[in-house]
Write a structure and sequence with these properties.
This is Threonine aldolase. With about 350 residues, this protein is of the alpha/beta class. Helix content is about 40%, strand content about 20%.
Length: about 350
């Protein structure tokens, strides 16, 4: 059984393991104040062409989302997200458990739109309802689609006009930035958002996300919030070392490009077989629509997720390629699919 279920089934890129081994017997300052975390932050700032940001290394994505949203919203405020958003669908009520409502609006190909945000603002008109204080988006989205610079700019302008914080979840940012449909740079994201993170867990790291605080008002005392929410690692250098390896050169983007290239190869083969997709194929997540018989046949040899039952014997399934996916595995899936797609 070969898994196309997610992009964190494998351990870590060899360069990361090499640096972890090399530095294992070093004595480092704890809690993210070590030289490796400092150098990793410096390397990231250089790539994004912004020096005036604060960078904190957080263990995982859900923890990063919960920490960020709970730290920057007032008690009576909510966060606006697409109905497919990770904070709404895949985080077990973690945001709501902090006392903040996730207010959702319908997605458009997985994306939140400025029109959807306006509708949410129009609905929340007075103090008898939660007050929108933040907009949450992810790039790539939960359906593997990517935001264009025009789309992100429109959302950013609206947020600044209405006094909303804009938070971008970058768990799969490497895939987004290396998508053939992408026209954003890391520097653009730093310009257009107030806070975002660069995902490591789903792009070659053992664990870890690099949270970037752009807006000055968010920076003061944030380490207190990290500790308060249980996200401050004593051995914080273990996360810093991993991002140091990922950004000491182009490894971070090369890994995202690898996952996208193999997804593109799979996409073209499925299209040649007449397969349609539930969402526009843009990145390392693909959502082909197949029959129940095809699902049963695929389950004999591969692991994947069923995204949605569409009715009339139609299923949207999810294939995910990763930084470590073998090309031979994709070739094998393509060959096998041709024998069952009849």
């Amino acid at each position: 059984m070969y898994s196309f279920r997610n992009d964190y089934s494998e351990g870590a890129h060899p360069k990361i393991l090499e640096l972890l081994m090399k530095t294992s017997l070093e004595q480092n300052t704890g809690y993210g104040l070590d030289k490796h975390s400092e150098r990793a932050a410096m390397l990231i700032k250089k790539v994004m062409k912004h020096e005036d940001v604060d960078i904190h290394f957080i263990p995982g994505g859900t923890q990063t989302n919960m920490l960020t949203i709970s730290s920057f919203l007032k008690p009576y405020q909510c966060v606006i997200a697409a109905d497919t958003g990770h904070i709404n669908v895949h985080e077990t009520g973690a945001i709501e458990a902090t006392g903040h409502k996730v207010y959702t609006v319908p997605h458009v190909d997985g994306k939140l739109t400025s029109e959807g945000i306006r509708r949410a603002l129009d609905w929340h008109a007075d103090e008898h309802m939660v007050q929108p204080g933040m907009v949450y988006i992810s790039d790539t989205t939960e359906l593997g689609t990517v935001y264009t610079k025009a789309e992100l700019s429109a959302i950013s302008r609206l947020c600044r006009e209405k006094g909303l914080l804009l938070f971008l979840d970058g768990a799969r940012l490497a895939s987004a930035l290396t998508s053939t449909m992408n026209d954003l740079e890391l520097s653009d994201i730093a310009e257009l958002t107030d806070v975002f993170y660069i995902g490591g867990t789903k792009n070659g790291a053992l664990f870890g996300e690099a949270l970037v605080l752009v807006k000055d008002e968010l920076k003061k005392d944030f380490r207190y919030s990290i500790k308060h929410r249980g996200a401050m690692l004593a051995k914080g250098f273990s996360a810093g070392i991993q991002f140091e390896a990922l950004f000491d050169g182009d490894i971070y983007f090369e890994l995202g490009e690898h996952a996208n290239r193999l997804a593109e190869k799979l996409k073209k083969a499925l299209e040649a077989e007449g397969v349609e997709f539930y969402a526009t194929p843009c990145s390392n997540q693909l959502f082909p629509i197949v029959s129940g018989a095809c699902v049963e046949a695929l389950e004999k040899k591969y692991e994947f997720n069923i995204e949605r039952v569409l009715g009339e014997d139609r299923y949207a399934i999810r294939f995910v390629t990763s930084w470590a996916t073998q090309e031979s595995a994709v070739d094998g899936l393509i060959k096998y699919f041709k024998t069952i797609n009849r």
